[in-house]
Specification:
mainly alpha, 44% helix, 7 helices, two-stranded antiparallel ribbon, uronate isomerase, domain 2, chain A, 158 residues
Amino acid sequence: MMTSARGTIAPFDPVARELFDELAGWPIFDPHSHIDPHRPAARNLDEILGYHYYTELAHATGMPADRVGPGLDPRTRSLHLAEYLERIDNTVQYSWLMEIARTFHVFTHDRIDPQTIGDLYDRALRDRDGEEWDRQVWKASRLEAIFLTNDFDDPLEG
């Protein structure tokens, strides 16, 4: 893998890179999503790390569930999960997390770990930005539409 002109991770193979570069510019139509279309962007790092991809992977590597329990404050949960990120750094989910950190939060460290999580947490605080932050993420993601969420009783209003 290498970093492309867009600042994203791209494959070395020329054919794969050409396909990647072409597809990278296409809009996204998300037919099945966990994204709330009314609030599509995380307001803090805890909302990203609390997603089941990260907590389940960390649990699978030995993290006790109480390290990210709901009674802890979000910064503490993020720090606790960061203690286990090294164990999942060979997963696509970790690469997604790094790309989110670099693309949306100008994170310049090589790794997300207990030493760098505080910097990323502070950069990712977007509560104050509200709908403007949602618009920025929506635009940068090239998200055109979301068609389905996980809630069985979702009103499906966009």
